[in-house]
# Entry
Amino acid sequence: MQNVVDQERHPDGYNDRNPDVRDPDFKYDNYGNLIADRDKEIKEIVYNHLNLPVKIIFENGGEIDYIYACPPFGGMPWELNLEKKYVTAVR
# Structure
């Protein structure tokens, strides 16, 4: 998928921040991972060797970093927000 076109134009419909269909809204790497989403203002998504996201970089300069833990921590990912200085489990 490269673009979404919402013909309805209802205010509760899809928020297409890049309506020019000649310019793709979504970009993917060679493994099929989403690496950019212009409609969500995601500039870049960085993946680790397991194809798990480790960093999301937004167009406004904000970032979300993910840390993955092994058992005994349950093997669940952790979200590290350096701006707000917190770490939370992502379920």
